[in-house]
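Archive entry: two folds, one per protein. Generate the first.
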Amino acid sequence: MFSKEEAANLKKEFWTSFGKSFPRKWLLYDTKIKDFSFKFNADPKKAEVSLELEMSDELFRNAYYEKIWSLENMLQEEIGDFQKDEFYTLENGKIISRIWFTKENVSIYDKNTWREIFEFFVEKMEGFERFFYEYEDYIKDV
């Protein structure tokens, strides 16, 4: 496949290309809620856009998750079907709550799928941002 260095260079080129193709400031970590962030992810098999609630205090994490979940229909209207897991386990074993969208059969290592990933990222993240800004006051009131 690729050496570690080639893979790292491709990943760097992917993210640089995304930034140049869609030069804008994304909300991501700037939600003003600690450990409440939106993320882009791309790997050799898929791309994802997610909302991750990483609060170590389970009561706070659950409260924010329930707020988002109470708006499920509005989120679905804004950006379509999504996956959710209140107790999602990260590779490092940490438990978070997560809502995400997945685009299968694309690869960070296949430049022929980059445009498809970029367009998926923009569509889903813009929808997440519209949703967040629309309901921001409600979500933050925990």
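Generate the second and append.
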Amino acid sequence: MSDLASIVDIYNGNDWQQKAESLLSIKYGEDFQRVPDEHKGDWGIEGYTMSGFAFQCYAPNKLYSTQDLYEHQRSKITDDIRKFKENSEHLGKLIRPNRFSRWIFLTTIHTSKFLNQHASNKATELRNSYNHVTEDFQILVHEGQNYFLEEIPRFQRLNPKTLRLQEPAPDAEELRTLLQTDSVAYQTLLRKLRAGGVRAQSIADGAERYIKDYSSGRSILEELKKSSPEIREMLDKRIRSLEKDIENKYASGINLNFNEVNLDVQRFKDDVRGYAGAFLDANAIDYIARGTISDWLIRCPMDF
């Protein structure tokens, strides 16, 4: 994909906490309880279930290196587990007669196995030493878009106003640059259109159309990033998977022509419709499909 962005640069901590609490309510129903921190401070969790799961949320508000992200997340877990220990008596009263078996760190991005190691070490400090946790107590790290895989589409259907995609507005300067006849994108498309059997008089128009489709697709994806970053992240992962299928297909030596490319567009739309049709309308899916196919043509996952 072309600069597909992660949801890491979308949320601040409060936004992610509010979204996560809504998703936890969908996932666990009335069993989920919020733990407000306005009255006498933070007890190291933002919610829990009576079945014994405690939750804490964290979203980095900028793009960190892997090391810096690990250090921020490590510090967050350390600080909140300290509170979780210090307030063991209060927390025990919340859940009794049950105890906590899991403390789950819900974040928007997880990139270091050493964070898992740190979580395991912290769990060991509590296990068998505090009465509000079980003997098999664990601290787990989960990315929200994976933990809420089923709940995010349900949330979107319940809150359709949060997903408002505008008609694509491509970046005018980028489009002007791409349409220069000596640009790499334009020349790549000319080569493929010629080799793919397109009539000579249609080649220039075809190159222009694919470049415009590419820019429109990028614009729609940017709108989706603003409206529903989790849906964008899920769709990005699906597109990356489809790209691998496309690369394998054309690496096998298939005799590509542009009738086949049009079939690829339709297959792509059918796939995305099945995957995201509950919250993306037909126009958005069409723009995304055509833009992605054009991106693959320009960058050469589709080559012959």
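Annotation attached to the second fold: The mean pLDDT is 85. The longest helix spans residues 203-227.
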